[in-house]
Amino acid sequence: MLVKKILLALSVLLNLTLIAYLLMSDKGVSNYQTLKADTHAFTEQQDVLDEKAYLLSHEIRLLQNDSEYVEKIIRKRLGFVKCGEILYIFPDSKIKVPVGARE
């Protein structure tokens, strides 16, 4: 009977030591929670990057296959005009002056 009590006391002491180690050590619960938060942040960042990659691949397909889209982008970003068109630029306008246009 005494042996059982000693074994029980040792097992309880061992369990308490293990619990304290899990709570207090660098590889314990706090580290687990930090890693879990990091994993969640990386997952969100990956979702954002996946969305950007999808949009860029869609734009690449448009640039390769859609001449109207290419023309729209050239006009918007570079300020080009077609031959015979007149471009009016107002003082508060944020449009760049087209290459070769008269000021």
UniProtKB/TrEMBL annotation:
The chain crosses the membrane at residues 6-24. InterPro entries: Cell_div_FtsB, FtsL/DivIC. It comes from the Bacteria. The keyword Transmembrane helix applies. GO terms for cellular component: cell septum. One of its GO terms (biological process) is FtsZ-dependent cytokinesis. It comes from Halodesulfovibrio aestuarii. Keywords: Cell cycle, Cell division, Cell membrane, Membrane, Transmembrane, Transmembrane helix. This is Septum formation initiator.
